[in-house]
Amino acid sequence: MAKVDNWQLNREMDYKFKASPPQRQIAWVFDTNKCIACQTCTVACKTTWTSGEGQEHMFWNNVESKPFGFYPLAWDVKILEKLKRQTWDGDTYAGRTIFEGNPPGEEVLGFTPEPEDWSHPNLGEDEVNAPIKGNDSFGLPHDRWMFYLARICNHCAYPACLAACPRKAIYKRKDDGIVLIDQSRCRGYQKCVAACPYKKPMFNPNTGRSEKCIACYPLIEKGIAPRCVQTCIGKIRMVGFINPPDKAREDNPLDFLVHVKKVALPLLPQLGTSPNVYYIPPIHVDTTYLTQMFGPGVKQAVEIYKARQEKIIGLLSLFGSTEHWVDRFEVAKGEAAAFQNDAELVRVPVKEPVVFRVYKDEKHGVFRQSVT
Ligand code: SF4
Ligand code: SF4
């Protein structure tokens, strides 16, 4: 085992290989407060990549309702139980990661889901954390809550799937950090399925090989965002390239939200893979639950989000406003603009103008009213 630096844990950790960071690392921010679980992203991904025979159970992108939604069944509950006690000493993780809690003979602490665990992709949809009583009221945070969690492969800095593959079939691309399974090398041992704590590699019984989200790399190479980002109805997603914390740039949207404002957080950072999908936590949910899910920065992230700073609001207005990945943004004079390689992609008002039609049109002497 090598020692690698994991900034999400604020400490070194064991990993099978020495750190070999890519030249650029693809990353996403998902704003959970805006997801409406329409599953447009899921369908866009499914129809693009996994509509073939043997792929029926595959959802490289899925959206589950927390706390009771899972795909596959109980993926997070099972790995967190196996990991046992997870404690943070301030910002420093004091527990074990899946690379430090590995059983003898295994590279990674993991488990293989049962085949039927993949058969109910949205079990628990819209179920709240506890029964609602007649007189329940909703303050912030809510007593009764649920929220939608959109999930794809995290294209991790320290991928568990890659560490576990005995065929060296999984690799992380040097130019963008995308993690891929080489189908010509894979022999379907499913070690990646067991090792990935997010359960994002999936086995294809027809080909006898494992498959996973490819971050729509043919689009990324052309400067375009993945299908799940392009089609997101709720405009919850932004994609770009993230820098390490010590090289963070204020004008990079990923750096700004993750490193500068710390309003977007990794999913289950305690697992140790250093995932690259970052979530703005839901502001209406109990922070004890959220801290287990997104780490110790949750309370601060929620406070910053609620403060509605103009630069953050401006950047959030750019989510879903362009089909491209974004490497720079600016917010000035009431407008937010996104750029790629210094070319302006889109410009939007930070505050959308609202126009009220007058009830009586004096010019034409008619009343305007809704006809339903
Ligand atoms: S989320 Fe899972 S499949 Fe994706 S890179 Fe990380 S460990 Fe591998
Ligand atoms: S398309 Fe966007 S809003 Fe709809 S479920 Fe997917 S992430 Fe949520």
Q: Averaging pLDDT over every residue, what do you get? A: 95
Secondary structure tally: strands: 19
Structural class: alpha+beta
Total helix count? 10
The global form is: globular
Main-sheet strand order equals: 12-3-14-13
Here the CATH topology equals Alpha-Beta Plaits
Query: For the report, how would you describe the main beta sheet?
Result: 4 strands, mixed
User: Low-confidence stretches at least 5 residues in length (pLDDT < 50)?
Assistant: none
Produce a short descriptive summary:
The protein has 372 residues and is an alpha+beta fold. Helix content is 19%, strand content 21%.
Walk me through this protein's architecture.
With 372 residues, the chain is an alpha+beta fold. 19% of the residues lie in helices and 21% in strands. It contains ten helices and 19 strands. The model has no long low-confidence stretch (mean pLDDT 95). It has a single domain (2-299), classed as Alpha-Beta Plaits, CATH 3.30.70.20. It is globular and about 80 Å long. It has helices spanning 40-49, 75-83, 160-164, 191-195, 217-220, 227-230, 253-260, 287-294, 298-306, 310-318, and strands spanning 2-6, 11-15, 25-31, 62-66, 88-89, 92-93, 147-151, 170-172, 179-181, 202-204, 209-211, 237-242, 265-266, 277-280, 328-332, 335-340, 343-349, 360-361, 366-367. The chain has a four-stranded mixed β-sheet. A hairpin with a 6-residue loop joins strand 8 and strand 9. The chain starts with a strand and ends in a 5-residue tail after the last strand. One iron/sulfur cluster binds next to helix 3.
